[in-house]
Amino acid sequence: MLSQEKIDIIKSTVPVLEQHGKTITTVFYKNMFEAHPELLNVFNHVNQAQGRQQTALSNTVLAAAKHIDNLGAIIPAVVQIANKHVSLGIVPEQYPIVGKYLLGAIKEVLGDAATPEILGAWEEAYGIIADAFIGVEKSMYDEMEAEEGGWKLFKGFVLADKIKESDVITSFYFKPVDGGKVPTYKPGQFISIKLEIPGEKNTLIRQYSLSQAPNGESFRISVKREGENNPNGKASVFLHDKLNVGDIVELSAPAGDFYLDVENASPVTLISGGVGVTPMMAMYETIATTTPERPVAFLHSARTRSHQAFDKVVREMDESLATSSYAALYSEEGDGFINRSFLEKNVLEGSDVYVCGPTPFMQAVISELYAMGIDKEKVHFEFFGPAVQLELAHA
Asked: Which of 106, 152, 175, 279 suits 126 as a labelling partner, its CA being 20 to 30 A distant?
């Protein structure tokens, strides 16, 4: 544990971190990648180029400084980040590297203001925080390996099928190369896919939600094809245009802290926008097949009907369930967007609400849910990329 003196020193750096945090993390990544270019195979280059990773790390460091006397307050953030780490294959040996270059960046940016006392306190604090991450991630890795068919880090899978679901979304079905079972997972979780793309210097790793209920036989991801010139599109374009049935890729075990509570019998409202429908499909199919009596509402927003995936299968499941309702809006076909009146009409009373979609969509929907008086503890949401903060009215 940190001494009170060092806690006070860490807290005294909060104003400096608020002012210079992103500069520090930008210098950190630059210096670390120059010294350890192999780590470029782990990090998302798009998030780096857009500054999202730097901002996310800056926010994490700031939160740690603010709560250094009560690190339990940031455990939810630790768990969320740890889930991303295990899906990327982060290992304990990488933490000392991060610590070295993070402390170096603090000294480089702050200069003489980074006194030996400040650097010493932060070095000790980083060790405690790193140990917390390593411990949480070890438990996650152990749990992954303990599952039937489970494994740690990455494993070879063959593309068993490839099905076009809409004008922009295609599903990919993967089975283990070794012919074994796939582990169960919580509906809503994701996997990482590791891609070696011709012409790309580094490996690309991307996370995609599992879009079907666990079946022990295969994983399914459903991917939106991004534009050729969109930096986010390198992986999706490769998957859509180049990955063929019979090809082999490496996948991580399922991870993620956004998932359906299958132990709870309370009503469920699923709200998705665009390709955010994917984790909802795993949740809805799970409810339909395991607890069909559980009340559920499925609300979806898409640009057009031709863009929407899974409409037919959702309608078929909805018709087969006595306590299900389904509503879809198409913004470019005159239906408008999911708004307060739509939510008041369709969100089930007393339900746990799960939301997934583009960040602006989630900001709008979740703000309205809060404004309607829905308990924050009953609103669950997921988005990919670094853990950025959602700007939510009434939050």
From this structure: 152
